[in-house]
Each structure stands twice: as C-alpha cells, then as structure tokens.
C-alpha cells in the first residue's frame, strides 16, 4: 500500500488550511480551490472518494466533534426549526430537486432523478458555521445550522436508500419507504440511547487519561458500526452519544478533558482539511465519466440543478420560519427577534459537502436486472457541480450578505458580564467550602498556604471583572491581560533555567520533563484564560 499520496494530501491540506487563517477567505473554500487547481497538476495522483471509507471512517469523527461542541440545551430549545430543516427540508429537497432534474434532463428516469435529489439534499454546515462564528452571527442561527448538519445526513442517506431501491428495481413503495425511515431513525436514536450511559460510566471510572482518550477516539466508530449492524442510522447514534457525552463532560477527570480537547481539535482540523481538499480533487474523475455528454448540455444541466437546489431551500425555509409563528401565539411570544433576515441567512447557508459526493460514488454500476444504472455518470457530475457551486457561490457571498444585513452581533459585553457574575457566584461557594475545610483540624495549613488559596480564588473572581474595566493607555491591555503576559514571561524564564541545568548535567532529563510539565500546565491555564477573554 502506497501511503505517500495520503500523507501528501494531509500535509498539503493542513498547510492550505493554516494559510487560510491569514486570509479573509474561509478555509473550506480555499481548500476546495486548491484541490481543483491541484487536480490537473502533472504527477498528482487520482484521489477517488471511496464511500466505504468516507461514510464509516470520516463521517463519524466529524459528527462526534460537532456533537461534543454543540449545546444540548440550545438544540432542545430550537428543536422545531432544527427538525424542520434536518428532516422536512431534506425530504422536500429530494422531491423538488429530483423532479426538476427529471424535467430538465432528457431521458433521465424519475427514479434516477430522485436518487440525485436525495444525494444533493443535505447541506454540510461545516463551512457555514465556520463563517457564522467568524462573523459573530447570533447564537440562535449558529445553533440551528449546527443542529441541521448533525441530523440531515441520516435523513438523506435513508431517502437515498429508498430512491435507489426504486431505481435499481428491488422494489420500493411509500409504505416501505416510511417504514425504512422509521426503523433507521428510531433505531439510530435507540442505539445511541443504549450506548451513551455505559460509555459515560466507563469514561468516568477509567483513571488513566491515555485509556480514557483512546476510548474517546473509538466511541464514534463504535456507535456508528453498532447502529449500522442492525440497519439503523449510524449518524443518529453518533450524534446522540456525542451530545450526551458533551453535556456531561464536566463529570470526567480534568486531565482527560484537557487531552481530549486537544486531540479532537487536531482530528477535526486534519479531517476537515483533507475532506474539502478531496472535494476539489474529484474533478478529473467526474469529468472523465461524462462520456457522451457534451460540455454545453452538461453545463446547462448543472446550472439548472444548482438553481433548483438554491430555490428549494428558500421555498422551504421562509414558510417553515413564519408559518408556525402565524399559527401559534406561544411561538411568537418566545421568538420575538425573528425577522426576514434570519431565514434569508439560513436559506443562503445551504452549502453542500463531502457527504453528498460520497453517497453519489456509492451508486451501483448496474441495476438489479444487470443493466447499467441510468445516467449514473451524469448524477456524479451534477452532484460535483452542485457541491462546488454552493461552496463557491454561496460560500463567497455569505460573509458580505451577513455584513450587508447588519444582523445583531453577539453582545460581548453582556456575555462578559454574565461570565463575571457566574464566576463571582462560584468563587463565593468556593470560599465557603474553603472555610469549612480549614475548620477541620485534619486540613490544617500554614497561614501562607491558606492565604495563597484565597489569593488564587480572588484572582479568578476579579479576572473577568477587569475585562470590563479600564485598559492600559500604553498597551491597550487590561490589568488581567498584563498579569497573564507577565506570568508567561516568568514561566519562560524558569523554563530556560531548567534546560540550562539539564545541559550542565545538574539535573537529568527525567527531572527536566517533570519540571517542564508543571510549567506547561500553568502556561496552559493562562492560555485558556486568554482564549476565553
């Protein structure tokens, strides 16, 4: 097995994603463009998407990281719009886009057109949520986009299986389709519910952080495989488990949380970078498969399907936003900040991604009767052009659209005030607990050490309040910013001394690692506080 192409893909994709952070262009768009450009560079190997790799090996960890970072409480508060998008819209888009393709492409059977509709139905909100966070969209819109991306793949895969069964002649009826959808969705949720409690119990009772993080890496694959084994939705199983573990992450050992956050951030970065680069690299494979189709007709079909995808989302999003409000006074009272701008942004943030391409590549070459699958190559081409079109057109125009609409940004001052109030309440509880502990003679401490505990606690309490206060006229930093910067400088000075002592053979390497780890933990704490600021 030649691993060099895989290593080159990961290395170049990571480099491009890192460079994107220094440009105004979102990383997913730059990665797709780089993939498109590299696809015709001499010597670049063919990177054909294998659905047997993407769906069971790439999709679970990406879904798991998204679920861990999502808020269960926010998703529960927005379950109606999330369900209307992740289930209702995907089914509507399957029918609407499929029928549009049937009308536009001469000779394409309706069953094959519905397969295309199911393939391009699920938006990939990775790029959209990245832009939303970068531009400070209201948290409710970001939550809705995240929630949609967590569930819509399950709906699309099930709709695809039903449409594919009709297209290849293995039989599919409305009743059978509804039954399969119910089994897949309820089964996936059931598997997730069955796994989440024992997995969380195991995470809490494993005392070794390395073992806990090994388990963490295995969880999404295990949940996905277990659900697929019983013909349920692996996507929903992964999401349910991820939401539960993320909601209860505070119960896990602190060392595990520190390592887990770093590990999953790295895994997510590598996988997302490679996935978007892979999208662009599919161009030669897709174009070669067009065969007898001319460039002109194929381009017209691509434009028509792209427009149908964009139009179908708006046709669904606006009524799904305002019709429930018109019918329910309770919804109107709860969602007072909903305007026409909200569905406009959600409607335009319907970019497609690698899941659509992976599903398209899984279309069989022949039907049940042994005949070639009708218009398979064209379906692959139209899926590719739709993914590229939405990523480029909508991805590039979404940031200026958001700025043009002037949506209310997140109130950073209000968030900092809430953080300060929460920290103050927690610090008071910690102070009371410290007094209780010190009153017990078993916890007797010298006065300087007891005072040090109180000083550290007081600093945590004051740190957030200082961010609301005045800043230095010279550096523009708050007192807490200056404190953290000076602390890091002091740690750096200590680190240099430890290394010098090791080089002079006054301490050995094992002691150096112990001392450096202690400093690293202190610096990591300062870094996390700075990131929160």
UniProtKB/TrEMBL annotation:
Family, per entry: Belongs to the monovalent cation:proton antiporter 1 (CPA1) transporter (TC 2.A.36) family.
Pfam families noted in UniProt: Na_H_Exchanger
Recorded GO MF terms: potassium:proton antiporter activity; sodium:proton antiporter activity
Alphabetized InterPro entries for the sequence: Cation/H_exchanger_CPA1, Cation/H_exchanger_CPA1_bac, Cation/H_exchanger_TM
Gene Ontology annotations for the cellular component aspect, listed alphabetically: plasma membrane
Superkingdom assignment: Bacteria
Compartments, as annotated in UniProt: Cell membrane
Membrane topology field: Multi-pass membrane protein
Name by which UniProt lists this protein: Na+/H+ antiporter
One GO process term, biological-process aspect: regulation of intracellular pH
All residue ranges annotated as the Cation/H+ exchanger transmembrane domain in the record: 12-402
Keyword check for Cell membrane: yes
Keyword Zinc-finger in annotation: no
Job description of the protein: Na(+)/H(+) antiporter that extrudes sodium in exchange for external protons.
UniProtKB keywords: Antiport, Cell membrane, Ion transport, Membrane, Sodium, Sodium transport, Transmembrane, Transmembrane helix, Transport
TM region(s), chain numbering: 82-104, 110-132, 181-201, 221-245, 266-287, 299-323, 344-366, 378-402
């Amino acid at each position: 097995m030649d691993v060099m192409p895989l290593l080159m893909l990961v290395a170049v994709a990571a480099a491009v994603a890192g460079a994107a952070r220094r440009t105004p262009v979102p990383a997913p768009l730059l990665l797709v463009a780089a993939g498109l450009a590299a696809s015709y560079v001499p010597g670049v190997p063919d990177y054909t998407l294998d659905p047997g790799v993407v769906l069971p090996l790439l999709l679970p960890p990406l879904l798991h990281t998204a679920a861990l970072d999502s808020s269960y409480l926010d998703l529960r508060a927005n379950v109606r719009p999330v369900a209307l998008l992740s289930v209702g819209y995907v089914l509507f888009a399957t029918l609407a886009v499929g029928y549009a393709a049937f009308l536009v492409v001469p000779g394409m059977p309706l069953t094959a057109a519905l397969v295309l509709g199911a393939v391009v139905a699920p938006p990939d909100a990775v790029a959209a949520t990245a832009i939303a966070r970068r531009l400070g969209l209201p948290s409710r819109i970001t939550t809705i986009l995240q929630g949609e991306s967590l569930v819509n793949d399950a709906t699309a895969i099930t709709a695809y299986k039903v449409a594919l069964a009709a297209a290849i002649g293995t039989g599919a009826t409305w009743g059978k389709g509804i039954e399969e959808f119910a089994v897949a969705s309820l089964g996936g949720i059931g598997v997730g519910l069955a796994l989440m409690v024992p997995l969380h119990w195991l995470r809490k009772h494993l005392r070794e952080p390395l073992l806990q993080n090994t388990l963490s890496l295995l969880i999404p694959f295990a949940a996905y495989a277990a659900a697929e084994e019983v013909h349920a939705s692996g996507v929903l199983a992964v999401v349910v488990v991820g939401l539960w573990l993320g909601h209860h992450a505070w119960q896990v050992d602190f060392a595990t949380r520190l390592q887990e956050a770093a590990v999953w951030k790295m895994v997510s970065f590598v996988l997302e970078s490679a996935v978007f680069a892979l999208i662009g690299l599919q161009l030669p494979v897709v174009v070669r498969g067009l065969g007898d189709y001319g460039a002109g007709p194929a381009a017209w079909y691509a434009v028509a399907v792209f427009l149908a995808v964009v139009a179908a989302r708006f046709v669904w999003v606006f009524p799904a936003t305002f019709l429930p409000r018109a019918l329910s006074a309770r919804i109107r009272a709860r969602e007072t900040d909903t305007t026409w701008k909200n569905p406009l942004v959600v409607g335009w943030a319907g970019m497609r991604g690698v899941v659509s391409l992976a599903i398209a590549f899984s279309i069989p070459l022949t039907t049940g009767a042994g005949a070639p699958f009708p218009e398979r190559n064209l379906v692959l081409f139209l899926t590719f052009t739709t993914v590229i079109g939405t990523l480029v057109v909508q991805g590039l125009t979404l940031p200026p659209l958001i700025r043009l609409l002037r949506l209310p940004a997140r109130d950073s001052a209000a968030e900092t005030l809430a953080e300060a109030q929460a920290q103050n309440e927690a610090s008071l509880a910690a102070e009371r607990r410290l007094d209780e502990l010190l009153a017990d003679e078993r916890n007797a401490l010298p006065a300087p050490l007891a005072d040090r505990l109180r000083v550290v606690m007081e600093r945590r309490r004051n740190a957030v309040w200082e961010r609301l206060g005045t800043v230095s006229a010279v550096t523009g930093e708050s007192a807490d910013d200056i404190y953290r910067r000076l602390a890091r400088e002091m740690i750096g000075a200590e680190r240099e001394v430890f290394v010098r002592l090791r080089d002079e053979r006054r301490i050995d390497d094992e002691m150096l690692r112990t001392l450096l780890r202690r400093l690293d933990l202190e610096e990591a704490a300062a870094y996390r506080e700075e990131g929160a600021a």
